[in-house]
């Protein structure tokens, strides 16, 4: 992997690398990155990750160790920095100028907040204490010339953090803000501009692309880790939302700066949008003459007038105007119903209906604004789909006929790319079994079947707990937990929603015979080597919801262009998640266990072979007795005997 990246950096080509769990993937790209920087003292390499966890691991452990080793070899210290989006840092203007009266207490605010949480005080009291604690912490960070990074802050909720941070739109800018010279964001960007190696995230990479490459410092090589997440993260960064609550909240902020007529008109728009959404179907909006589009046009026009009128010099007026400008921009974009956008009505149980707009495709954005700017390495443990790299390449804008290691003849506009699968140190055939329950009935929409629940309980019993259950929905996870708790009263079954997911995961790791059931967030984010996880159960092939407007639109677009929309979008999505989910089982060379898929379609459906080719090459069986016997041999009773 390191040799291939070294070549790609030298030749200025793009490279896709699939590096299985356990290969030392981070070192695989850090070594050639540091070598490149030692050879090019004026160069800069940016590394973009999907998760804050990997970002922190790189900045706190992997990079310092690699830099120290590189210094011994090259005689020069490579500098490095971490760069996040604006809302990950405390805003000093918000903290100091926006702070209310502080609460006098002999205890620190963080201790007060923790005490309130433990006594289960009302939410407003906890929120208030958390905000005070965050303000104290931000001031301490200022005095200590710290980073003001949310990851270092006292325990808090998202609502509390929103009181001490500021959205991009509402930032006054370093030149106009009274705290511009000590701003945490400006400090982080200044440090990044001086660093040789910068670690950022996919979302900030997307924002940089959408804003003309003005967010990240200039760089001449780019590494994208967790690249299987890239298109989803870029799609999220390029998406917009609009709700009645949002319109009403911004209208109230703007009231002091508007005349009475415009203020009333702006306030009424929240209720008008609520009524329009109530009458609209929960689906994609395609008719430019629909009532919801007319409502969006009205919001756009009123918001334009608000932006023009709310133009005072004081910071609060500027921030209110910026919030109204965001309402204008989003409403304008949604009302346009551009061919490249998907706009739909969605619904949340707690907050009701709202509007969402997302790009139909982000491949052109990535090709034109990222890959065309910088030779790029994209790497992940799961980058092939159906055993091929072409789907991943296409998703980021690379074309099949541009693949240099397949004999492509590049022209002037080509983005030459190569691909490499470095394999895995694991012997999957000997370490794991894939059991497909092909005798079960197919999954149904109204919940997990009784037959699947019975099979699940037997497998968990055979494993002696030690089970990670990955379910297609929260309803299925909860039904499975109830059933297993009733059938296996001596075992501990944790279920997502019982407590914070981080606490449940810690218990699962700490208590080997405990099982953990959950949904999508467990498919990719849990690393549990050893005795704790002997069985991974997947209840259903994780196809996207058939009523997901964005996935529907993407499938239709592929079909219209002559492709197979189902295979290119739905099956590819499922294959990626199956690979990630089944990859939870084997995390070390000493791990052993079973991946059990309770969906017979993995074996019986025409697309089953395509999905199986994306999984680790486990030894496979459809015989439940074989799976049960294998789990019993790995169980605690067998070890004790």
TrEMBL record:
Q: Does Transferase show up as a keyword for this record?
A: no
Species of origin: Propioniciclava coleopterorum
Q: Name one GO biological process term.
A: nucleobase-containing compound metabolic process
Q: Which Gene3D superfamilies match?
A: P-loop containing nucleotide triphosphate hydrolases
- Which EC numbers does the record give? 5.6.2.3
What residues does the Helicase ATP-binding domain cover?
Answer: 1-276
Q: Which reaction does it catalyse?
A: ATP + H2O = ADP + phosphate + H(+)
The entry's protein name is: ATP-dependent helicase DinG
Keyword Hydrolase included in the entry's annotation: yes
Q: Which UniProt keywords apply?
A: ATP-binding, Helicase, Hydrolase, Nucleotide-binding
Q: Which GO terms describe its molecular function?
A: 5'-3' DNA helicase activity; ATP binding; hydrolase activity, acting on acid anhydrides, in phosphorus-containing anhydrides; nucleic acid binding
Q: Please indicate which superkingdom the organism of origin belongs to.
A: Bacteria
Similarity annotation: Belongs to the helicase family. DinG subfamily.
User: Which Pfam families does the record associate with it?
Assistant: Helicase_C_2 (PF13307)
